[in-house]
Amino acid sequence: MGQIPAERRQYPRAQKQLALKIKADGCDIVTQTENISCVGTYCIVDKQIPVMTKLSLLLLLPLRSKNRNVTSKIHCKGVVVRSDTAVETGKFNLAVFFNEISERNKTKIAQYINQHIV
Description:
Blueprint: E1 19-24, E2 27-37, E3 40-45, E4 54-65, E5 68-86, E6 91-100, H1 103-116
């Protein structure tokens, strides 16, 4: 039996659906992540957004703090690094790289991921 290959990405990803708002070219798109790392996310949208398009992002990140649940609003900028059409649904798969994100927000996402990866 072969071994399962190790994750080759530098930053681990969590397969989690989190609320995500994207602002691109004057329009707002509300969607959710399919997976997330502290340097980017993958999501599905109804509108085609070309590769290299700059985005403003708002991510709602549920965190556990001092024995209670809180939602942290993560504001950052990103750029589309991959955009594919899902033929079966007619929607668009986007890979977004966070090109402007504070270290504090990157740390919050990393903490979230560490709580949720298997």
